[in-house]
Amino acid sequence: MSDAPILQVKDLKKHFLLRKGLFGGVSGRVHAVDGVSFDIGAAETLGLVGESGCGKSTVGRTVLRLLNPTAGTIHVHGTDISTMGARALRPLRRQMQIIFQDPFSSLDPRMKAGDIVGELLSVHNVGDTRSDRRARVAELFSHVGLREDQMNSYPHEFSGGQRQRLGIARALSLNPEIIICDEPVSALDVSIQAQVINLLADLQAEFGLSYLFIAHDLAVVEHIAHRVAVMYLGRIVEFAEKHELFSNAQHPYTESLLDAVPVPDPTIKHTRRRLQGDVPNPIDRPSGCHFHTRCPYAEERCRVEEPILKEVAPGHLAACHLK
Ligand code: SF4
Fold first, then answer.
1. How far is CA 128 from each of CA 71, 80, 132, 155, 299, rounded to the nearest angstrom?
2. Between vectors from CA 40 to CA 76 and to CA 68, what angle results, nearest 5°?
3. What are the residue ranges of helices labelled H in the chain?
4. Per-residue pLDDT tens for 236-292?
5. CA angle in degrees (0–180, nearest 5) for 94-102-196
6. For domain 5-318, which architecture applies?
7. pLDDT digits (tens, 9 = 90+) for 26-44
8. Phi and psi at residue 65, in whole multiples of 5°?
9. Burial of 133 (0-12, 13-18, 19+ CB in 10 A)
């Protein structure tokens, strides 16, 4: 890993306005992402973890500029892309790709697999001839463990894991540096999840890719992330190098997520408290620490005062009044 970050995100916010009816005034605001900062270096994987509705996928889409940020900056190799227009963004789009959660709905069922993987090559005019592009697609099939003759098959002829391999091949087609992996294994059987994670790790080693790896449980990022950010209701509440986070979690929310990670040894008993209740409505977030309605350690101060994300150990940040 190089020290210079490829991607730097600073105080990123994405708020959605709620309106009364089609032409009505603004009735509320969803703080989907509310001041998120991180960076990712070359060949590094940052795991971004939290329950559904915490804003992690919105972070991924906003970083890619599929959504416009409300505030904050996104630097790619030192260039701020947060307010760039579509024309200026076009060459940068080649550097940043996405792998979607659902390999079933993200592939056009009417297109042959080779055309799906080669689509971006045509859009970006890569390769002089059709046969150049065909050769590149065959190479991509090989990189993701698919056979060349499968280029003529349709998505329904592939298994779930193979369809996700197609999604990965398509994301790789333009030689990107950064890939947003948006819950890429959540829709797959557990037995297939490890294969896809191993493939992503192998591709990272081969091509020096940087990943923002979004997942809703810590078990998935354990094998691929170098550092992990834990999100709750639009904010990062804990951030640390992976081994530090797994061995020395500081935030009660991270403790709860860790408690949900299966332990292979049945003789080991969980001592942490399990997470109670659902994620609160992001339109009407709890006051003070947003986690106080579910936190077993909450005290009066937590209900009124918002904790800031501060360093609790070198490189380890947590947002909790008790730390
Ligand atoms: Fe729990 Fe209070 Fe810490 Fe929030 S600030 S995580 S409510 S102890």
1. 40, 31, 6, 27, 65
2. 50
3. 56-63, 86-93, 113-123, 130-143, 160-172, 190-207, 218-221, 242-247, 252-259, 300-304
4. 999 999 999 999 999 999 999 998 776 666 565 555 556 777 888 888 899 999 999
5. 75
6. 3-Layer(aba) Sandwich (3.40)
7. 788 899 999 999 999 999 9
8. 65, 25
9. buried
Instruction: Tell how far the Cα of 315 is from the centroid of ligand 1, in angstroms.
Output: 20
Ligand 1 pocket mutation, candidates 257, 302, 305, 317, criterion most atoms within 8 A of CB: 302
Ligand 1 binding pocket mutation candidate from 254, 305, 317, 321 (most atoms within 8 A of CB): 321
What distance lies between CA 307 and its chain's CA centroid? 24
Token look-up 């834990």 returns 230
Specify the pairing of strand 210-215 against strand 96-99: unpaired
Distance 169 CA to ligand 1 centre (A): 42
pLDDT in tens, 129-184: 889 999 999 999 999 999 999 999 999 999 999 999 999 999 999 999 999 999 99
Return the residue matching tokens 């009124």: 304
Confidence (pTM): 0.92
Q: Structure tokens of 30?
A: 């969803």
Pocket of ligand 1 (CB under 6 A): 251-252, 289, 291-292, 295, 297-298, 302, 307, 320-322
Longest dimension (CA), the chain: 68
